Amino acid sequence: xxxxxxxxxxxxxxxxxxxxxxxxxxxxxxxxxxxxxxxxxxxxxxxxxxxxxxxxxxxxxxxxxxxxxxxxxxxxxxxxxxxxxxxxxxxxxxxxxxxxxxxxxxxxxxxxxxxxxxxxxxxxxxxxxxxxxxxxxxxxxxxxxxxxxxxxxxxxxxxxxxxxxxxxxxxxxxxxxxxxxxxxxxxxxxxxxxxxxxxxxxxxxxxxxxxxxxxxxxxxxxxxxxxxxxxxxxxxxxxxxxxxxxxxxxxxxxxxxxxxxxxxxxxxxxxxxxxxxxxxxxxxxxxxxxxxxxxxxxxxxxxxxxxxxxxxxxxxxxxxxxxxxxxxxxxxxxxxxxxxxxxxxxxxxxxxxxxxxxxxxxxxxxxxxxxxxxxxxxxxxxxxxxxxxxxxxxxxxxxxxxxxxxxxxxxxxxxxx
Length: 417
Ligand SMILES: Nc1ncnc2c1ncn2[C@@H]1O[C@H](COP(=O)(O)OP(=O)(O)OP(=O)(O)O)[C@@H](O)[C@H]1O
Ligand SMILES: [Mg+2]
Prior knowledge:
Elements: H1 4-13, H2 37-46, H3 48-52, E1 60-64, H4 71-88, E2 93-99, H5 106-117, H6 128-142, E3 145-151, H7 154-159, H8 162-169, H9 171-174, E4 182-188, H10 192-195, H11 201-208, E5 211-213, H12 219-230, H13 241-251, H14 261-280, H15 289-297, H16 300-310, H17 315-331, E6 336-337, H18 338-351, H19 359-371, E7 375-378, E8 390-393, H20 398-414
Parallel strand pairs: 1-4, 1-5, 2-3, 3-4
Antiparallel strand pairs: 6-8, 7-8
Helix pairs in contact: 2-4, 5-6, 12-13, 12-14, 13-14, 14-15, 14-16, 16-20, 17-18, 17-20
The structure holds adenosine-5'-triphosphate and magnesium ion.
């Protein structure tokens, strides 16, 4: 019989597929972002003054591009670099990243900024304006500067009250102070020409000034990205160039895909997982193009896509997804009426003691989930009268989906989102 040490050694010695699979996770932010050098440079130019003449002006920049084009990753890694540079020059600069999809008002966004800056501003019963003034004062006392990324800003444009939208866009029109300590990066998937339709003329001018565009990735670019991300994620030599090329061609914008790096990474990861299972059964020794084919042809891909999105959806979006899944299961049909989904959603909220989001917000969530490819929507149904909307999932099997959703909801509730 093997002793415990021998068992451990045999596991350690056994050649595997993944060296560190967390490096392929969607939330992992790599040190280098191939093919985003130009966007990085533009950011550096626009934020130069924060280091050279801190407080002289407040930068306001939009990062615009479709799903999975590296907006979030670029903003976060820019934040890391610039705060390091600032501290080398004696400027107290912090980077703050707020996911606006989980916020409901300008005040809740500002609260999040305060928390991430670690400032002590009492906020019991303060209005947005009072709270912000207290926050700015505290920053003055601490001689602190910040770059704030407002990620998922479309959700602000769609679902925040007009007043709150303007407060976040025209911040220093409202708050007159000598030193402008807050700088903003707005991250959006909406074409700027679409985004401004939700605004008045003055705000429009503000939003249009500095836009950095993130185009969908071409196949060649994805190849470099995959190869780079695979380093350290897989054992050396386990994935061949043909595999990277195949995935890159599946997803590349110029080769018929949507140019979404997150999707490309998810496919590579799933192919790796499949190869790992086969390796344990002695049926494979490395990741092959065939594994990618199997993954991309299988129903798993729909599930991969949904599971991938669970990481960045807010609690209410997750509850809505659960409501859709339950609705589909209860009715046993392939599409379910949104009105019905909303009822189920409200019931779920009530059971958890949560206030359900308003109809307009729920509607926005559905549009948003559809634009992410997580759900599919349809206006009419054969054999049913009237004009209402219907929603469904792609290929994801409902039971696996529901159990994954349960877990994600539990996690979100724990962090108290
Ligand atoms: N140039 C790149 N090099 C390496 N990894 C990248 C690159 N661009 C994107 N990624 C990775 O792809 C995934 C998606 O990127 P990211 O989350 O930044 O996209 P996004 O533009 O914010 O998408 P969304 O609009 O869906 O929020 C992340 O895991 C990110 O680390
Ligand atoms: Mg993002």
